[in-house]
């Protein structure tokens, strides 16, 4: 009878076999809905509410899949640890509400890309709406500018809690020039300081879509591109304006699409995981 019970228990035990993604032959981008920010004051971005379609900001996460490896770019506003099952999470911070519909890591695992298998991790910058799940990728190689890393570990310890494990991660300190992640010109990290000391953006060459610039918080709303002023809370507003000018020149020269990360219209027109953009 004891043997029978053991056999039954083994048969009843759910399978936790990890799905492994198949190798890819060309570059692709998986886009995840990692949340929403509501209740923001547009005047902080030198804009007027009456001139805007919406003040809401979407929070995307990106998995870049290349034949030579993977790059996780920005990892959400709500940590997976805040979720109870699959129920959405909402948090209020004064007049601002942060929310997310589902945890990130199970979505990655379902595609065959658990955090421990991600080659590189990078963030446009260290603000909390881009780094909520950063510690999950402490086993990846971290791509960061020295000025950003220094800023991250000089803020109050409680502000470091989402990414403090990266302090001991394998790290590549990037130059203030372009950094070719996979060595073939298809995934380039570009320095764009100002919003934070080491803010960076990501330039891609997708096989069907063509060139794309994922712009972090260089712009938060499309309307900022026509306003000759930086947001009020930038680390260095002069650097922000110089970075914007440099990236506008890059967009013109390359013909790249601009993906403003927080822009709902940009987010809504792109394919979402488990589908992918290529």
Briefly note the structural class of the backbone. Answer: alpha/beta
| CATH topology tier name | Metallo-beta-lactamase, Chain A
Return the CATH class: Alpha Beta
How many helices does DSSP assign?
A: 5
Percentage of helical residues? 10-25%
Q: Largest sheet, order of strands side by side?
A: 4-5-1-2-3-6-7-8
Under the CATH scheme, which architecture would be assigned?
4-Layer Sandwich
Distance between the termini: 56 Å
**Main sheet record:** 8 strands, mixed
CATH superfamily: Ribonuclease Z/Hydroxyacylglutathione hydrolase-like
Number of domains: 1
Q: What is the element string, with H for helices and E for strands? A: HEEEEEHEEHEEEEEHEH
Number of strands: 13
Low-confidence stretches: 1-17
In terms of DSSP E residues, the strand content is 25-35%
Please tell me the overall pLDDT: 93
Shape: globular
Oligomerization status of the protein chains: single chain
Q: Whole-number radius of gyration?
A: 20 Å
Give a description of the structure:
The protein is α/β, with parallel strands linked by helices and 278 residues long. The protein has a single domain, classed as Ribonuclease Z/Hydroxyacylglutathione hydrolase-like (Metallo-beta-lactamase, Chain A, 4-Layer Sandwich). Helix content is 18%, strand content 25%. It has 5 helices and 13 strands. It has an 8-stranded mixed β-sheet. A 5-stranded mixed β-sheet has the order 9-10-11-12-13, with helices on one face. The radius of gyration is 20 Å and the shape is globular.
């Amino acid at each position: 009878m004891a043997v029978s019970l053991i056999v039954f228990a083994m048969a009843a035990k759910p399978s936790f076999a990890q799905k492994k993604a198949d190798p890819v032959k060309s570059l692709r981008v998986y886009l995840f809905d990692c949340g929403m920010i509501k209740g923001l004051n547009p005047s902080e971005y030198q804009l007027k509410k009456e001139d805007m379609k919406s003040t809401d900001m979407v929070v995307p996460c990106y998995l870049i899949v290349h034949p030579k490896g993977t790059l996780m770019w920005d990892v959400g506003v709500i940590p997976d640890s805040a979720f109870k099952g699959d129920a959405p999470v909402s948090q209020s911070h004064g007049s601002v509400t942060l929310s997310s519909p589902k945890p990130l890591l199970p979505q990655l695992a379902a595609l065959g890309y658990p955090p421990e298998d991600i080659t590189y991790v990078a963030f446009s910058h260290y603000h909390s709406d881009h780094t909520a799940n950063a510690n999950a990728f402490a086993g990846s190689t971290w791509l960061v500018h020295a000025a950003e890393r220094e800023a991250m570990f000089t803020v109050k310890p409680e502000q470091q809690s989402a990414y403090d494990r990266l302090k001991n991660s394998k790290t590549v300190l990037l130059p203030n020039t372009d950094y070719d992640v996979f060595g073939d010109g298809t995934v380039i990290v570009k320095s764009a300081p100002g919003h934070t000391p080491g803010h960076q953006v990501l330039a891609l060459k997708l096989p069907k879509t063509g060139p794309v610039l994922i712009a972090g918080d260089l712009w938060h709303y499309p309307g900022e591109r026509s306003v000759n002023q930086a947001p009020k809370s930038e680390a260095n507003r002069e650097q922000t304006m110089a970075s914007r000018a440099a990236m506008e020149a890059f967009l013109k020269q390359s013909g790249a699409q601009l993906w403003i990360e927080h822009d709902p219209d940009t987010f809504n027109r792109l394919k979402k995981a488990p589908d992918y953009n290529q």
